[in-house]
Design a protein that fits this description.
The chain is built from 14 helices and three strands. It is mostly helical. The protein has a three-stranded antiparallel beta sheet with strand order 1-2-3. Helix 8 runs parallel beside helix 11. It is elongated and about 75 Å long. The termini are far apart. The relative contact order is 0.10.
Length: 349
């Protein structure tokens, strides 16, 4: 009983993950560990039955202030630090809630005699209501962003030779390809990063994302632009990797793209996040007249009804939608022979 009473937050987190591993995605486990270790580092050795409601209120406000003090983004839908503080408390609440009703081995009482202390945040009503993020890039913004990403000066020197990249290169071709890939497909941040070459079918011109948010594999058609991008990436990989977007230093692992959107935002002057690109894709498809069902199929949203589960959207229908999306995003100009006016070697972009 004494041993159980002394269960630390670190031990509680490990037990929570171990016993629920079959129900939680690997990315979620990584997120839980990162959130707890980042925001409750000083509590890891603290017995969970000693964490009080006031401790949670105090730490919640501290997290808000800490994140706000180092925030680099000027325009945010919510108060800087609010989202991180709420995520931290949701994660802590999930872990502590798992043990809230556990009895001590000697039946002398509950492990958490006062229940889940994180619940006090709701009782006190001190959390702000988070505003939904609904930003999508305007036509002018995406035109400027795409012009910035595809500008030859990013990839070739004044003699027309490819620039040699290093770890310190601010804008890598990988970064530009990834952002273009997100815009042209509506995929989530990590979905292209986990894509492997065996999931790319050049014969049928489709690719399949296996590790998705709803655990349902997503097969999408390649447009000509995406096909050229993938073929170029496959041909130019000097060090073999199973990943379409491998790490720069270790091709055996997928790229992370940490802070890439933040860096490109600063350099281009167009402020955006990876999810803003996804909303831009959805908004553009809606403007083109495609139905919510078609857009949901491309974005791999969960089906809303049993009927939806039976309705299959053809790959060719989706290909047409994504091709029209590209024309809209890139403002493609056509010459009299029906060809694109401007093309470039880097350009599957």
């Amino acid at each position: 009983a004494q041993s159980v009473r002394g269960k630390s937050l670190s031990e509680a987190l490990d037990q929570y993950i171990s016993e629920k591993a079959h129900l939680i995605k690997t990315t979620t486990i990584k997120s839980y560990k990162g959130t707890i270790e980042r925001n409750f580092h000083g509590w890891l050795n603290k017995p969970i039955n000693s964490i009080t409601a006031q401790d949670c209120v105090t730490r919640y406000n501290q997290i808000r202030n800490e994140v706000a003090s180092r925030s680099r983004v000027k325009k945010k839908a919510n108060t800087p630090g609010e989202a991180e503080a709420q995520k931290a408390m949701r994660t802590l609440g999930a872990v502590l809630g798992y043990f809230a009703n556990d009895m001590l081995p000697d039946n002398s009482g509950r492990l958490l005699p006062n229940g889940n202390p994180v619940d006090s945040l709701k009782d006190k009503g001190i959390r702000q209501k988070l505003k939904s993020r609904n930003r999508a890039l305007s036509f002018e913004e995406r035109t400027e962003l795409l012009e910035f990403l595809t500008h030859p000066s990013n990839f070739i020197d004044k003699y027309g030779r490819p620039l040699k990249e290093s770890r310190r290169t601010a804008i890598k071709l990988d970064h530009c390809d990834w952002i273009i890939f997100l815009l042209c497909t509506g995929l989530r941040f990590n979905e292209p990063l986990g894509l492997t070459w065996d999931q790319v079918d050049f014969d049928d011109n489709v690719f399949t994302v296996i590790n998705t948010k709803n655990n349902k594999p997503l097969t999408l058609p390649m447009t000509d632009r995406i096909r050229r991008l993938l073929l170029r990436r496959k041909a130019n990989q000097t060090r073999r990797s199973v990943y379409v977007f491998p790490q720069y230093g270790n091709p055996k692992k997928p790229a992370t793209m940490n802070r890439v959107c933040e860096r490109i935002s600063k350099l281009s002057g167009i402020e955006f996040s990876a999810h803003d690109l996804r909303r831009t894709t959805a908004t553009a498809l809606k403007e083109l007249g495609y139905s919510i069902e078609d857009i949901g199929r491309i974005l791999n949203h969960s089906r809303t009804s049993i009927t939806d589960e039976y309705v299959q959207t053809s790959i060719e229908h989706l290909r047409k939608a994504l091709e029209e999306l590209e024309f809209m995003l890139f403002d493609v100009m056509w010459d009299h022979d029906g060809q694109e006016e401007v093309s470039d070697d880097y350009g599957a972009i």
